[in-house]
Amino acid sequence: PVNLFEQFQRVANAYFLFLLILQLIPEISSLSWFTTIVPLMVVFTITAVKDATDDCFRHKSDNQVNNRQAEVLIDGRLQNEKWMNVKPGDVIKLENNTFVAADLLLLSSSEPHGLCYIETAELDGETNLKVRQALPVTSELGPDIRRLAEFDGVVVCEPPNNKLDKFTGVLFWKDNRYSLNNEKVLLRGCVLRNTDWCFGMVIFAGPDTKLMQNSGRTKFKRTSIDRLMNTLALWIFGFLVCMGIILAIGNSIWEHQVGAHFRIYLFWNEVVNSSVFSGFLTFWSYIIILNSVVPISLYVSVEVIRLGHSYFINWDRKMYCPQKDTPAEVRTTTLNEELGQIEYIFSDKTGTITQNIMTFNKCSINGKTYGDVYDDLGRKTEINEKTVPVDFSFNPLADRKFQFYDHSLIESIKLGDAMVHEFFRLLSLCHTVMSEEKNAGELIYQVQSPDEGALVTAARNFGFIFKSRTPETITVEEMGKLVTYQLLAILDFNNIRKRMSVIVQTPDGQIKLYCKGADTILFERLHPSNEELMSLTSDHLEEFAGEGLRTLALAYKNLTEEHFKEWFKILQEANTSVDSRNDYLAAAYEEIEKDMMLLGATAIEDKLQEGVTETIASLSLANIKIWVLTGDKQETAMNIGYSCHMLTDTMNEIFIVASHTGMEVREELRKAKEHLFGQSKDLSNSHVFCEKMQESKQDSVLEETVTGDYALVINGHSLALALEGDLENEFVEVACMCKTVICCRVTPLQKAQVVELVKKHRKAVTLAIGDGANDISMIKSAHIGIGISGEEGMQAVLASDYSFAQFRYLKRLLLVHGRWSYFRMCKFLCYFFYKNFAFTLVHFWFGFFCGFSAQTVYDQWFITLFNIVYASLPVLAMGLFDQDVNEQNSMDYAKLYEPGQLNLLFNKRKFFICIAHGLYTSFALFFIPYGAFYNTAGEDGKHIADYQSFAVTVATSLVIVVSVQIALDTSYWTAINRFFILGSIAVYFAILFTMHSDGIFVIFPNHFPFVGNARNSLSQISVWLVILLTTVVSVMPVITFQFLKEDLNPTLTDQVRKLQKARRKQKPLQNYMRRVYRTNSRRSAYAFSHQEGFGELITSGKNM
Amino acid sequence: MKNKNSQGAQECPSRCPDNSAFKQQKLPAWKPKLTAPSVLSSFFTIGVFCLLMGICIILSARSVKEIQINYSDICLSCSKLRENSSNWDKECNCSVHFTLQENMLGDVFMYYRLQNFYQNHRRYALSRSDAQLLGQDVNIENSNCAPFTTYPNGTPMAPCGAIANSMFNDSIQLSYHLNSYTAIQVPWLKSGNSWWSDKNVKFRNPTSYNLSSAFAGTTRPPYWQKPAYLLDEEDERNNGYINDDFIIWMRVSAFPTFRNLYRRLHHTNQFADGLPAGNYTFHITYNFPVTRLKGKKQVVLSTITWSGGSNLFLGIAYTVSGAVTVLAGFIITAIHLKLRKKKTYFQR
């Protein structure tokens, strides 16, 4: 019932309800009540079933979650309580492998030091274990229930928010204040691992928890076809009203002129007593009759088709990633055809284009680079299969997957170069990795970031094996001997600091600070004596960055005991401050991280995802513009651009906008624009304003005139300026004319802004693809958001409309599924409108012959069933299964994608063609039987021109014409299509004869007055002659036009189909030639060759 | 959501979709394409077929002999009389003479034809009770029969409704003048003119020991001159609701101009082969007023063929569409041959 109410809230359904009410007024009702209510019921049941299953799933998981049991400490005893009854302030006991019920403050746990391990897969998709540690004071409480029950600490903390990685608060207990941070808190949705039990106090419960706060409402997305459909529905409604008015006026006139005389046989009844009023009623009657132009089933059919397409995407094996065991998943089922209209793709880089798998590739230690491979002549060569990797067999704990090709580094280590040792010691100490030694010799690292993992793994392979850590110590196996360092402090990484440090005490009592971080930041904090090494290292860094490698600079500092103790006090103070503790901490960190000694730098390779280059190439062939929005720095971003061929050397110009003021940005944009428009516009240079006005006018024209490939690279700072006010237009103009746009150093918000900008100014369909939490805003604001179910977590997937495991599936999603969806949906809509106009407008013609009395042409049952039984399945089958071009060809001929972008297959013009077609068919449907039956008798001299025979004749012709038409429209005849089309006709005749049978009439004489009609009418030759002629007349022109169009002006689709047909005949000659996978080695080769001059200069002069 | 997924993953270890033709959208399919040979051959086949069909229909329709006499114009005095409804009980007879030039051989049918009579008007066409006509005892107040349901005193009409009330009630007889002195009645069959299903299924008299008692408690519709059980006193199986004239009238026509079958020729004596050529006279009892509704009445004598009556429309329509199709076929051929060379380029 609630569902019913909700359904009536939809405008369309309310409209049909209104019609239903109209039909209940006897003076107006031109159709029996069942003609509307039966389809309405069918539609409602389908929708209700769909909603109910959705709801059911949601309820099930809700219930499951709400009814999970938690052990709550009440009155000094542990009692089982349902989750929904847990309140803030309760103390809860959690056991291993259970879900955390609410946001908890960790009090104590079974592990030493109040540690506990959690898995946060539900929160952010990361499957690695995370550590949470209780405050030492509370961890003493242990499993002592009595003491825990007496625990009366008060937590003061921030209000509920949705930041998963931040928490600040203070615990007041026994007159002491203890600062709380994220490390002390277990968030709802986590799972307790490797910890037998733990106790926690509930801080937030229910909807206040961070998990719940994070599940923001997604905007309801609609496709452009949807919007067009709504507009068209309004137009059709207007058209309907017009026809109603025409017929109503006709009725008034008729009643006045003719009806007045006829009234001896047909009195006015009490209500209707003037021709004007009669006309008014007729208007409503005709609205009822003609409403089937937009039948109720349209919306449901569209939904069904979309759902079907969604399932096809889910089922696609070619979008299933065996490595991750994830098939593609459609999370929003209503957007499929929009996938065929994408013009702009906004892509994240990390984890989307790149794998987010890091490998330690190169390093620079004390001014010397390692990691390049040289051939015998001392030239740099590319790494290929033949290059011998370094043999790490001396190290039993080495990770076998790790490969390194430069043998000189291992030599240096073996020689005992102090700096090299210090370098790797740093790598093995300064990190936040957790280790786990399952069996002897089998170390498993739980890493927070893949960069770190790569570095620690590298150190491990080079003999500095990080073995284990406790909160106070780190154990490292250095070249075979175990060394335990006292961990004095971790100065953690964050986005502002862009570095992290550890302060450790070596076994011999020395206190050292090890720091790694972004070069720019770190270089500012070096001891002045490092000048020379710094410039050398920064040369190396640039070289690394030029190769698309991620770099980190490493530094260390020796500390004296006093200095450290002094500083530690500051740190503790900072730690306990409530309000702006983070600021204080940052200041404290700043204090100690200075005057450091540079050790060197590391370079990590960011591997591209499989098939990225190919995908991007075919997408740009399909005229889709790809914008990369990344948080990375410009060089890295550009290099990824080069390595995936988004930027090429053959490009005419790459505009780089990296300025700091609005004026500069404007200037650079204008220069770019001048360049784009070329010499033809030289003269207007001086007149900025004039030029601007001209350009805004000629915008669309100019776009066509730009030839050649251009690319735009813009950094976050300039982007922020470019997005402001009047620069916006200029930016969009330039950017949209470039083939590739790369925005680097952008914030998540800016990503969304860029998307909004393009949406606003270009009216194009946009798609955003990303995998991380920072892409959510972009994914939500684009027309279609795609989440890569990859490394960075599930948040992007949860916010997205589609998700799959690898970037390369995007090609298939767009070029195959998107294109097909769009193509099918358009065909479906065209046919649907055609069908309903043909069906309905017959009433209009008939109006002129029945005194505009709103008499229907067809049997009421036929009207009831036509749209839901006779004509629905074939068109559904076409909407689901039709293929114009097979999947291989739609991938190979990317140009086939263009009609979708230009909205060619279903637009207003197409719609009018459909209507005209429908109008023509209805004309033929009515006037051929009219002419044939006018003043004549059947072959046995009996009735033929009676109303019922006429109705049967027209209805039969309609069903046949419509079936022939769909047979012509269907380009991919599967068994299902065949079955549905032939089946519909068969079902039509079956139902016809049933309804006209004796038995059913005797039972319901008032509802089935057509008894015996089918038998008598359809046994007449002339009726069949009429049906045949109607079919020929309404179908032949269509064939003519279709054939001429295909013959004279073939679209690419037609050509490909022809080719496809020809190819099938002469046995497939698959063109797999284009499908060359570009392997990583080729990619790096490319990077080398591009940076040739640069790299050689540095290496030849200063290296080796 | 995630939770659901992981559960699903546990149930079936691999989430890899099935490799069925249906799920991978690789169902075997026939991919038709409009190629020049198939289109052109279908055009010519269909065109020629339509042409031949049309000619056949025209020829057969031309062979139909038909005579139409507009007696509402000829019997003007009667028409005038009927315009005033107060004269309903005055009888008015009218004779119409005509000469048949040729023999009408085979089955000959007599139709009455009404013009401008809107039997297809919605309110009119609705105004009947099929249950009543099926002989069931129904409450007429609840049926669609308005405005002809009951008399002010509550007696229901049988049959009720506007259609029944306005039943065509002229009686037409034809006499054949053997010579200028003797005229003989042409024998007509008045039953067997309606559909079998109507006569035996759709219409039933109420059951009782005799017909008049079956209709007890009801009265005739206001415009009728006699009650339903007196429609044909000679033939029990053609009386009451199952009277053929009544059944035919109750089958409302699709258009305001229509003809209904009135009588079939009974092949006896001189009329064994049909109507011989000669002079005839229609004797019409003029009851049904049409001039008031600006309508016309005709009486039609017609033979029939396999394709129906004398209507030429179907034949002409077939011929025309056949011709157009063939013509279009030629034009398409011409266009195709002339312009096909252009389309050789192929772009990716």
From TrEMBL, chain A:
Q: Which GO terms describe its cellular component?
A: plasma membrane; trans-Golgi network
Instruction: Cite the binding residues for Mg(2+).
Output: D348, T350, D771, D775
Broad EC category: translocase
Q: Where is the P-type ATPase N-terminal domain?
A: 1-37
- Annotated active site: D348 (4-aspartylphosphate intermediate)
Give a single Pfam family match.
Answer: PhoLip_ATPase_N
**Compartments reported by the entry:** Endomembrane system; Membrane
Q: Which residues cross the membrane?
A: 232-254, 274-300, 828-849, 861-881, 911-930, 950-968, 980-1004, 1024-1044
Q: Which terms under GO biological process does the entry name?
A: Golgi organization; phospholipid translocation
Output this protein's name: Phospholipid-transporting ATPase
UniProt organism field: Chelydra serpentina
UniProtKB/TrEMBL annotation, chain B:
Does this UniProt record's set of keywords contain Zinc-finger? no
Pfam families named in the record: CDC50 (PF03381)
Keyword annotations of the record = Glycoprotein, Membrane, Transmembrane, Transmembrane helix
Instruction: Name one cellular component (GO) term.
Output: endoplasmic reticulum
Localization per Swiss-Prot or TrEMBL? Membrane
Major localization class? membrane
Q: Which InterPro entries match?
A: CDC50/LEM3_fam
GO BP field: phospholipid translocation
Domain of life where this protein originates: Eukaryota
Q: Which family does it belong to?
A: Belongs to the CDC50/LEM3 family.
**What is the name of the protein in this document?**
Cell cycle control protein
